[in-house]
């Protein structure tokens, strides 16, 4: 999200990235059954993060373009945990 508007962000202290993660977690908890597992993020390159988690004994991994690890985790949650009910049907 911040990457589109503020490429130099890196969560410069205004809390935009933490707010984005809080919203993603809230929506994911509402949509999924059970708890959200711990999500790990590691910087791979400039604004490219490797993000992964283990769910039901399976590893889910992805590479995410983001301004910081917090935004990378939020994007990962949006991509892998939030289900659009219209698309599911």
Task: Describe the protein's architecture and organization.
The chain has 89 residues and is α+β, with helices and mostly antiparallel strands. The protein has a single domain (2-88), classed as Double Stranded RNA Binding Domain (2-Layer Sandwich), CATH 3.30.160. It has four helices and three strands; from the N terminus they run H-H-E-E-E-H-H. It has helices at residues 2-5, 16-31, 69-80, 85-88, and strands spanning 40-45, 48-55, 58-65. Strands 1-2-3 form a three-stranded antiparallel sheet, covered by helices on one side. A hairpin with a 2-residue loop joins strand 1 and strand 2. Helix 2 (16-31) runs parallel beside helix 3 (69-80). It is globular and about 35 Å long.
């Amino acid at each position: 999200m911040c990457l589109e508007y503020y490429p130099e962000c890196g969560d410069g202290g205004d809390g935009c990235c933490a707010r984005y993660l809080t919203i993603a977690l809230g929506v994911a908890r509402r949509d999924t059954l059970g708890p959200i597992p711990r999500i790990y993020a590691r910087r791979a390159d400039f604004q490219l993060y490797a993000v992964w988690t283990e769910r039901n004994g399976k590893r889910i991994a992805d590479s995410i373009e983001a301004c910081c690890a917090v935004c990378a985790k939020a994007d990962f949650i949006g991509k892998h945990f939030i289900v659009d009910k219209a698309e599911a049907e």
